[in-house]
Specification:
heterodimer, A: alpha/beta, Elongation Factor Tu (Ef-tu), domain 3, Rossmann fold, 2 domains, seven-stranded antiparallel beta sheet, 5 helices, 17 strands, 17% helix, globular, B: alpha/beta, TIM Barrel, eight-stranded parallel beta barrel
Chain lengths: 252, 305
């Protein structure tokens, strides 16, 4: 949890509307866990005022990558950064994926830009595990499979891969994997995570989901990013208790 | 000249400098202490504590607006008992001046909370929140009625000898009347302002962007309003004012002091720059050196109108 001025190394549009931002930031990179995020101030101005949270996409040495699409002013400004620009970053923040354990199959479920945290996770998952990546999108243009392994796709409109959403795709494929030896890691829009959690809880699969929320600070003081907990009489905070939760622990 | 006196006085409370952290923007100090040295600031005002724990409002609680943000957290807090048991011990070790903010849904609850915390040596003063816009059962209901503010101040005054600060709402026509009422009933200071009631809608879903529909607007967008309120109090009521509202840097802090603030509180900026307090203290010191001010307290109310 440190605040640093990171140097922009590159911003690349890897496919239409999807960007990879690479920054150099020594200390943060060393201690990051997959699924954690950084809170980035896109510039010094008062608009946008707040930082923008981004999953850590990948870490190579002291280079951290972030994957994002343009949602509003903040991400638009970020997409226009040039090599050498300085970005004030707080991170790594939050609780990431727990990728240790006895599972043999790591199943990744990525809905659109929800693919962002998985290159780093794949990097860290031990080599003896079998990794399968299910990537869904509305159309083939919304599928992001940057640095993912063994990709199987689905689209809502049938323009690529399985015709249907990514949870339906998983349901049609999961019989191929031994339940007791499978762990699911997911990130995507809330309706997707809701449907997935219902499926994994009802069928007894181990599943971790990376959630997102509007937030201001990113480290627990604004209390703005609350989510309903299942076993807790207080709200959980996406920034501090998450963003990665066990699927059965949160009500989205 | 190296020795600038940054200390300020609020009633019997002496702060080593005028920079405080505002209630509800720094929790109970533990998270932000990883980013800034809390022993260097003037004081920390803890998240509102109420007699019983409050879960707060369901999501979505915040949204960003032009140069500001709306929040409707709903006074989520651990409640008095837990606060005394688990938060006070941490706060005790902070080596910072601790001011405890109290929220309540009845006058009796304000009194009960103040009484219970009065014996805690770590608590150096009370800030009474009569102005939270985001709860249905209290807060602004009190803050909008000058007679209630009068009653609460008097009742709380009767149970503690520690300094009392009444946190005032800007959502009222004449803030000076509320400051006068607080003074008349023995408050040591007022803090101004709490957030302004605002809202924001999604133009496609036609739904409010925060679940509570309305929230409290904070950030640089409200600074001119806050300054005007501080000035209004300063020109009409003889009571120390703690200025709050959109302070982002030392220049903003100076502006508030010129308009009448004895001290200032940082709120929204903590979310963006958790080390803002230290930077602002440094900036204030340099401003004093630059303008040959030996005591920063001389800045308070130094406006030329």
């Amino acid at each position: 949890m440190i605040e640093k001025n990171a140097i922009v190394k590159s911003v690349e549009e890897i496919q239409k509307g999807i960007f990879i931002l690479k920054v150099e930031s020594e200390l943060s990179a060393l201690e990051a866990t997959p699924g954690q995020f950084c809170n980035i101030k896109v510039d010094d101005s008062l608009t946008p005022l707040l930082r923008r949270p981004f999953s850590i996409c990948d870490v190579e040495g002291n280079i951290i990558s972030f994957q994002f699409n343009i949602v509003g002013e903040g991400t638009k400004i970020l997409s226009q950064k040039k090599k050498g620009d300085i970005l004030n970053i707080i991170g790594p923040l939050g609780v990431g994926f727990n990728y240790s354990g006895n599972y043999e199959n790591a199943i990744i479920i990525a809905g659109g830009i929800g693919a962002a945290p998985f290159p780093f996770l794949i990097e860290k998952i031990p080599n003896n595990k079998n990794i399968i990546s299910f990537c869904g999108g509305r159309t083939k243009n919304d599928i992001i499979s940057y640095k993912l392994k063994n990709v199987i796709t689905s689209t809502d409109d049938g323009s690529e891969g399985f015709h249907g959403n990514v949870v339906e795709l998983l349901e049609s494929e999961i019989h191929k994997y031994d339940k007791a030896k499978t762990k699911i890691f997911a990130c995507g829009p809330n309706p997707m995570l809701r449907a997935l959690s219902k499926f994994t809880i009802e069928n007894g699969y181990e599943c971790e989901i990376s959630t997102e929320s509007v937030m201001a600070c990113g480290f627990g003081i604004c209390q703005g990013c609350n989510v309903e907990g299942v076993h807790s009489d207080r709200f959980l905070l996406v920034c501090k208790d998450g963003p990665v939760f066990n699927a059965e622990d949160v009500k989205l | 000249m190296s020795g600038v006196d940054l200390s300020v006085k609020i009633g019997s409370l002496v702060l080593q400098n005028p920079v405080m952290l505002a209630s509800g923007t720094v929790g109970y100090g533990n998270e932000i202490s990883e980013y800034t040295d809390l022993s260097k600031i003037g004081g920390i005002v803890t998240k509102s504590v109420s007699l019983h724990p409050r879960k707060g409002n369901p999501p979505t609680r915040i949204t960003e607006t032009a140069s500001g943000m709306l929040n409707a957290i709903g006074l989520a807090n651990v409640g008095l008992e837990e606060f005394i048991k688990t938060k006070i011990p941490f706060l005790k070790n902070l080596d910072s001046t601790l001011i405890c903010n109290i929220a309540a849904s009845s006058i009796e609850e304000y009194v009960e909370c103040t009484k219970a915390l009065d014996s805690e040596e770590t608590v150096k003063a009370f800030e009474i929140n009569v102005s939270c816009p985001n709860v249905k059962d209290g807060g602004l209901i009190f803050g909008n009625d000058v007679n209630n503010v009068r009653k609460i101040t008097a009742k709380v005054r009767a149970v503690t000898n520690k300094p009392i600060i009444i946190k005032l709402s800007p959502n009222t026509a004449s803030i000076k009347d509320f400051a006068q009422a607080a003074k008349d009933e023995g408050a040591d200071a007022v803090s101004a302002i709490n957030t302004l009631v605002g809202t924001a809608f999604d133009i496609y879903t036609k739904k409010p962007k925060i679940k509570n529909i309305t929230g409290g607007l904070s950030g640089p967008a409200i600074k001119p309003v806050a300054l005007a309120k501080v000035l209004e109090i300063s020109r009409n009521v003889d009571i120390p004012i703690i200025g709050i509202g959109g302070i982002m840097n030392w220049k903003d802090a100076v502006e508030f002091m010129i308009c009448g603030a004895t001290a200032i509180q940082l709120g929204t900026v903590n979310f963006i720059n958790p080390n803002a307090s230290e930077e602002i203290i440094e900036g204030l010191k340099n401003y004093c050196l630059e303008t040959n001010l030996s005591k920063i307290s001389d800045l308070t109310g130094s406006y030329l109108i």
